[in-house]
Give the backbone structure.
Amino acid sequence: MSPLRAWGLPILALLSSSLPQIQAKSVFAHFMVANTQNYTLTDWKSDITLAKASSLDAFALNAGFNQSENALSFHHAFAAAAETNFKLFFSLDYSGNASWPKDQVIALLSNYTTHPAYFRHTDGRALVGTFEGFEAAPDWADIKERVARNVGSETCCAFIPDWTSAGPQRASSISSIDGLMSWDAWPYGAESMNTTMDEAYMSALDSKAYIMPVSPWFYTNLRQFNKNWVWRGDDLWYTRWQQVLELQPEYVEILTWNDYGESHYIGPVRRNATGVIDRGAPFDYVADMPHDGWRSNLPFLIGEYKNGTGKGEVEVEEENLSVWYRLSPGDRCDDGGTSGNSESSGEVLMKPGEVLQDKVFYSAVLDGWADVRVAIGGVNRSADWSDTPDGGKGVYHGSAPFDGRTGEVEVTLSRDGELLAQMKGRRIEDSCPGNYTNWNAWVGNVTAVRRSDENGGMAIRIQRASLWVMGLALLSYLM
Ligand SMILES: *[C@@H]1O[C@H](CO)[C@@H](O)[C@H](O)[C@H]1NC(C)=O
Ligand SMILES: *[C@@H]1O[C@H](CO)[C@@H](O)[C@H](O)[C@H]1NC(C)=O
Ligand SMILES: *[C@@H]1O[C@H](CO)[C@@H](O)[C@H](O)[C@H]1NC(C)=O
Ligand SMILES: *[C@@H]1O[C@H](CO)[C@@H](O)[C@H](O)[C@H]1NC(C)=O
Ligand SMILES: *[C@@H]1O[C@H](CO)[C@@H](O)[C@H](O)[C@H]1NC(C)=O
Ligand SMILES: *[C@@H]1O[C@H](CO)[C@@H](O)[C@H](O)[C@H]1NC(C)=O
Ligand SMILES: *[C@@H]1O[C@H](CO)[C@@H](O)[C@H](O)[C@H]1NC(C)=O
Ligand SMILES: *[C@@H]1O[C@H](CO)[C@@H](O)[C@H](O)[C@H]1NC(C)=O
Ligand SMILES: *[C@@H]1O[C@H](CO)[C@@H](O)[C@H](O)[C@H]1NC(C)=O
Ligand SMILES: *[C@@H]1O[C@H](CO)[C@@H](O)[C@H](O)[C@H]1NC(C)=O
Ligand SMILES: *[C@@H]1O[C@H](CO)[C@@H](O)[C@H](O)[C@H]1NC(C)=O
């Protein structure tokens, strides 16, 4: 170690310890505790490890009252999170059979909000969310006061519920809230997602925190809940993150980590966790439909969100390509009685094939321009980017229509005529399992090959970074 660094380090350490310990912007994933009945401590650790690798800060544990798996799952989850330095908070689900009784909420929060793995809001208080439960809004002044009496008012609680059914005006008029979350993460019919609702929340909340929802997809077909509809996914995973970069909300919550029943999971499909599908879906629309590839661009996107502007400050250390599509054209099989839009939300119903498009969608985090080709069934065509980043470095996005083609899917990126990345995905078929169209998406991803000249570039970057650290050390010494 150089003498410069030897005395530089303690000063740096001193500097950083005087910075606020709690980071402002954070990214959560909504986590269905109901699917963890068979989870071991190892499963929890595995999910948390994957979430951390994707730059997530915490899971929002969605739990209904009096569910048999709650006690053991909470115990395992907090143990796993503490061990891996990850964070968790409760999102109490009031939409199921029974809403949460006040005394039970007080007992739960008094026990867990002091846990070192419990997620803390910017002011240090434990963050508590809900899924719905506006009818229980009057409970919360009392809940906060009584838990604070047990654990201290600096510990409990920052209350940031999702009361989407009440809307931003009514929900923000409740004085016990410290912020709100919205569940409006999908566009209407065949429209593109916009930020009108997010802006309504942010303006109603003024300086209180907003949790902005981001989701890649929505297809549910569960007889036990009488649910069978799609909302538009397609470009959404790209579009919505761009909206996050624009609006810069205090928090982002990904919907979801593991809601298999609504097809918006970004976590792994674990055998033994998808019982909700076995119990009431007319066919299995989740098995062999991995969504892990949607996580591959998260470290970059989250880096951009946290760096504030989304204007290219974040280094692209590894170029990635992620690709998603449905496995059959929308008109080949029975549509399963699935509607586009939801009757229970009072929306005008459409055909699912009018909402979801027969296209192969692709997003890539790139250091610079690449040419893209999409081959379906051996018909290999040059394809376009619909969106490219300012300055050439960042997230590229596009899609290519099936155009009646079926067969093997291959997406190829090349730069200056040299192969950069190639993803071979599952076949698009003319037929469907049980003749029902699976409106869920298949997602694949690859990491780009590194060329030797890029390794040279990397070495220079590292050198520059350590020069910068040394400069800062010198500066802090002189001050
Ligand atoms: C599934 O969960 C059940 C109940 O916990 C357990 O007995 C079984 O071994 C699990 N199966 C697999 C394949 O993990
Ligand atoms: C909780 O669930 C059990 C069965 O799982 C039931 O016997 C009990 O009455 C429930 N308690 C409440 C308060 O609903
Ligand atoms: C909900 O309540 C009904 C009737 O009270 C019961 O049959 C069902 O098992 C409950 N479901 C859950 C998930 O607790
Ligand atoms: C209280 O929290 C601890 C973990 O800190 C857990 O092991 C225990 O089961 C919890 N008890 C109750 C009643 O929730
Ligand atoms: C955003 O989408 C909603 C739902 O379709 C629509 O009502 C609203 O007018 C749109 N906002 C803008 C600015 O177009
Ligand atoms: C747990 O495993 C049992 C036995 O395999 C299965 O019936 C149940 O649906 C599983 N639970 C979940 C949440 O997947
Ligand atoms: C695809 O993305 C997932 C999630 O980021 C990652 O774990 C996996 O290694 C990636 N696979 C490839 C081939 O790059
Ligand atoms: C690319 O994907 C890998 C594996 O998921 C991840 O470690 C890496 O951070 C990703 N790169 C970017 C720029 O997001
Ligand atoms: C900026 O992005 C990088 C990821 O490339 C991340 O490590 C860093 O924490 C981000 N900066 C802030 C202030 O969050
Ligand atoms: C499958 O669905 C298509 C479109 O609804 C229909 O024309 C065809 O007869 C069905 N095939 C079988 C084997 O049911
Ligand atoms: C499509 O063309 C690209 C670029 O020439 C090539 O790398 C790729 O292997 C081709 N794929 C197929 C399936 O023909």
